[in-house]
């Protein structure tokens, strides 16, 4: 079972993002106080485009702190030190914590965080906004290729959550569908493998997987 803690708790809302008027809530800021977590997310936290972000299955975005040194090393190889990586929140996450890497957590795993109970619902599919946020073309594709996607919690029981609260796994899903495995199959191109049909059908029927990803599995299944 996983036992960790919140390194940074981040809250934000839509801000001007591009000259054409596009907004984004990716630039969240760390808070130093408890925040109430409800079914649709943290109090005071908003998304810019509710058609693709937010909702019950995407109430809380988490990103593994272990990935930051890897991204720093990647940019160092390109001869740059990216300022966004100097602190948590570069990927728009609400929770930055260690121990929640995509190869360890399963869809349906449950955790107690502060006074709330949450459940892993899906990985985070990157889009063009990550490229624009970092001013780096192709970064979203690199996130897909590396599988460093982070993930989402749905909220099972609401409650106050504070910086440095324990993240304690209280239930492990009874299958082997980690975020990493699901992400590779649905987003990373794994569905093209000759033997992917049965796996896609299994995901289609996995009730703890977010509804939109179950729909994606159904569309990809032959």
TrEMBL record:
<dbReference type="Pfam" id="PF03473">
    <property type="entry name" value="MOSC"/>
</dbReference>
<dbReference type="InterPro" id="IPR011037">
    <property type="entry name" value="Pyrv_Knase-like_insert_dom_sf"/>
</dbReference>
<dbReference type="GO" id="GO:0030151">
    <property type="term" value="F:molybdenum ion binding"/>
</dbReference>
<dbReference type="InterPro" id="IPR005302">
    <property type="entry name" value="MoCF_Sase_C"/>
</dbReference>
<dbReference type="GO" id="GO:0003824">
    <property type="term" value="F:catalytic activity"/>
</dbReference>
<protein>
    <submittedName>
        <fullName>MOSC domain-containing protein</fullName>
    </submittedName>
</protein>
<dbReference type="InterPro" id="IPR052353">
    <property type="entry name" value="Benzoxazolinone_Detox_Enz"/>
</dbReference>
<feature type="domain" description="MOSC">
    <location>
        <begin position="29"/>
        <end position="170"/>
    </location>
</feature>
<dbReference type="GO" id="GO:0030170">
    <property type="term" value="F:pyridoxal phosphate binding"/>
</dbReference>
């Amino acid at each position: 079972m996983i036992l960790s803690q919140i390194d940074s708790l981040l809250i934000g809302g839509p801000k001007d993002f591009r000259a054409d008027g596009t907004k984004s809530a990716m630039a969240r800021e760390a808070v130093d106080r408890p925040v109430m977590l409800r079914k649709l997310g943290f109090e005071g936290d908003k998304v810019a485009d509710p058609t693709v972000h937010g909702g019950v299955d995407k109430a809380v975005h988490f990103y593994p702190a272990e990935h930051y040194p890897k991204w720093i090393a990647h940019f160092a190889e390109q001869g740059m030190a990216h300022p966004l990586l100097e602190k948590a929140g570069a990927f728009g996450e609400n929770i930055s914590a260690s121990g929640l890497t995509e190869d360890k957590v399963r869809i349906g795993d449950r955790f107690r965080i502060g006074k709330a109970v949450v459940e892993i619902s899906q990985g985070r599919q990157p889009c063009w906004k990550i490229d624009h946020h970092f001013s780096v073309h192709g970064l979203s594709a690199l996130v897909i290729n590396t599988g460093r996607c982070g993930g989402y919690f749905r909220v099972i029981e609401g409650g106050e959550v504070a910086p440095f609260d324990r993240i304690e796994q209280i239930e492990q899903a009874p299958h082997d569908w980690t975020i990493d495995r699901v992400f590779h199959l649905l987003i990373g191109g794994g569905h093209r493998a000759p033997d992917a049909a049965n796996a896609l059908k299994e995901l289609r029927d996995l009730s703890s997987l977010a509804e939109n990803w179950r729909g994606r599995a159904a569309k990809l299944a032959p």
